[in-house]
UniProtKB/TrEMBL annotation:
Family: Belongs to the glycogen phosphorylase family.
PANTHER family listed in its UniProt record: GLYCOGEN PHOSPHORYLASE (PTHR42655:SF1)
Record protein name field: glycogen phosphorylase
Keyword Hydrolase listed: no
GO biological process: carbohydrate metabolic process
Cofactor: pyridoxal 5'-phosphate
SUPFAM superfamilies the UniProt entry points to: UDP-Glycosyltransferase/glycogen phosphorylase
Keyword match Transferase: yes
The protein's Enzyme Commission number: 2.4.1.1
Length: 574
């Protein structure tokens, strides 16, 4: 990379996980996929940004599901030639030890020729003791000490490494989630304790409305790690009783945001007194479209992948061609399913998909609340595909996988209904699912979903959402109620969080029975028309629009930057 280019990059984006490619295990789920899509759009829009993450040589884990049991297999992946080892090494003081941190560089290329350098920090280098080399092995399965050190490597090590590599003109440090907040300490040292100088250079995006989702460390641990290197006002910055990484990030930033409008409201309640804006998430349209629809769009709507408003032209498509295109993607999914499961699915049947982290608040078994009623409603006409990982230590989550598998046996034997749980959820499987099912189901407990992005991917592919009004779907459904269905009450209901689960389950069954199944089987034209409504949501819920909002409100890029003019030239990239 040329020195000139390094000096022009004035935004540094820090994220504990970034989904570069499906089979590179530097991500565990939504946060990493969003970071990847953000950088893909930033590359397309030629945003002057450099990203920092850790280099997990063992990644998260490979998931196998055998008779309803999740088995976690260790991953060992090979660094391809796309990863360039940098000669630079920086040092961090941790306890009484020096930690050496090295770096790899991966270049993400956009469809327009723009690129984003991604720095992956690595402690598995010459000169570190054996135990130190392990610190960047694995994503998210660590003791509080290991985790705190990983976060120091990301936040503090990241800033030092950028400087060492020649990125010396960073104006904005973007902390994507609180994991990088130790960077605030690093900058405080650099600016001799002047918090205002630090705040001018930092922004923070929070991603979870669930209090347990925010990292906390005991001050005992933090003092042991930092020794006499903690800033004097650490309690004012990080909290009175323990160190809350989100609070540290909030206190060290000039700008903070949540990731959907409702999430902004929830975050402002969770952190009273802080100004927290909201920028609704998106997905990278060019990355998430299935290959058949992509062909159709490329031919009929040149430039659609960068000029996202053009997706409006989907109105002009014929119903038959759209349905045929969808069917091709559905057949791909069925082919995959047949080689990975014993349950026989049928591409002619209405197929409902559910794929996300399997954990309590997502209510992965809500669908089975009244299994006899479900059986009668679906009556050999509807089939279901589930996928998703549970955190290795989430025993309750793994219990849900078992329950889904048991329900699959029961519904098949008693009602002839296919329910499949596919293992090894990753971006490749996600592509197949969001491109190939007919309806995308999401039923979290209300206001615990910050945004959710898999529903946006589905919608872009003409797959209707059937979802609780939470996260992005509050906005999606409001923009166009024909793009899918809402389960249960809306956010205007003051008792929305208080109804029993059976209330949502009942509404889910009713919508299936009275609206969705009849529409699919008796009015295919009506169905296909609604697919267009779903696709049209892609004119808004995409990372190009999202990155533009960050550029204007968070990164404060000036309008004369190239990304603005690039957006205007439409014909250039088709
Ligand atoms: C999109 C995606 C997610 C995030 O989906 P949610 O709707 O936020 O649950 C998680 N994992 C993978 C592999 C994805 O592709």
């Amino acid at each position: 990379m040329f020195e000139m280019d390094k000096k022009q990059r004035n935004i540094a984006y820090f994220s504990m996980e970034i989904a570069l490619e499906s089979d590179i295990p530097t991500y565990s789920g939504g946060l990493g996929v969003l970071a990847g899509d953000t950088l893909r759009s930033a590359a397309d829009l030629e945003i002057p940004l450099v990203a920092v993450t850790l280099c997990y040589d063992k990644g998260y884990f490979f998931q196998e599901v055998v008779q309803g049991r999740q088995i976690e297999r260790e991953i060992q992946w090979e660094f391809s030639s796309e990863f360039v080892k940098m000669p630079n090494i920086i040092e961090l003081d941790i306890q009484e030890k020096k930690f050496k941190v090295g770096a790899w560089m991966y270049t993400m290329s956009g469809i327009t020729g723009g690129t984003i350098p991604i720095i992956l920090l690595d402690t598995n280098i010459e000169g570190n003791e054996h135990w130190q080399k392990n610190f960047t092995h694995i994503l998210y399965d660590a003791t509080p000490f290991q985790r705190a050190v990983q976060e120091m490597i990301l936040g503090m090590g990241g800033i030092k490494m950028l400087e060492s590599l020649g990125f010396t003109n960073i104006q904005t440090h973007h902390m994507n989630e609180g994991h990088a907040a130790f960077g605030v300490f690093e900058l405080l040292e650099k600016y001799k304790g002047d918090l205002e100088e630090v705040k001018r250079r930092c922004i923070f995006t929070t991603h979870t409305p669930v209090p347990a989702g925010h990292d906390h460390f005991s001050y005992e641990l933090i003092k042991d790690i930092f020794r006499d290197r903690l800033p004097e006002n650490y309690k004012e910055l990080g909290g009175e009783y323990d160190l809350n990484m989100s609070l540290l990030a909030l206190n060290g930033s000039r700008y903070c945001n949540g990731v959907a409008q409702k999430h902004g409201v929830v975050s402002r309640k969770m952190f009273p007194g802080y100004e927290i804006d909201a920028i609704t998430n998106g997905v990278h349209n060019g990355f998430w479209i299935n290959k058949y629809l992509k062909e159709l769009f490329d031919e009929r709507i040149p430039g659609w992948a960068t000029d996202y408003k053009k997706l409006d032209d989907v109105w002009d498509f014929g119903n038959f061609e759209l349905w045929e295109t969808h069917l091709q993607a559905k057949l791909d999914l069925m082919d995959y399913e047949k080689s990975h499961s014993w349950v026989l699915l049928d591409e002619r049947k209405l197929t409902i998909g559910f794929a996300r982290r399997i954990t309590e608040y997502k209510r992965p078994t809500l669908l089975f609340s009244d299994v006899e009623r479900l059986g009668k409603i679906c009556d050999k006409k509807v089939q279901f595909i589930f996928a998703g990982k549970s955190h290795p230590r989430d025993e309750q989550g793994k219990g849900y996988i078992k329950q889904i598998s048991d329900m699959s046996d029961y519904l098949y034997d008693s009602y002839g209904i296919g329910v499949v749980f596919l293992g090894a959820y990753d971006m490749d499987l996600s592509h197949l699912l969001v491109g190939g099912v007919d309806v995308w189901l999401n039923n979290p407990r209300r206001y615990m979903e910050a945004s959710g992005t898999s529903g946006m991917k589905a919608s872009l592919n003409g797959v209707m959402n059937l979802s609780v009004l939470d996260g992005w779907w509050i906005e999606g459904y409001q923009r166009d109620p024909m793009a899918g269905w809402a389960i249960g009450c809306g956010p205007e209901d003051p008792k929305a969080t208080q109804y029993p689960d059976s209330y949502d389950a009942n509404d889910l069954y009713t919508k299936l029975e009275r609206e969705i199944i009849p529409l699919y089987y008796n009015n295919r034209d009506g169905w296909t028309e609604r697919m267009k409504h779903a696709i049209r949501l892609g004119t808004y819920f995409n990372t190009h629009r999202m990155v533009e909002e960050y550029a204007e409100r968070a990164w404060k890029l000036k309008a004369q930057n190239r990304w603005k003019s690039l957006l205007k030239s439409e014909e250039e990239f088709s």
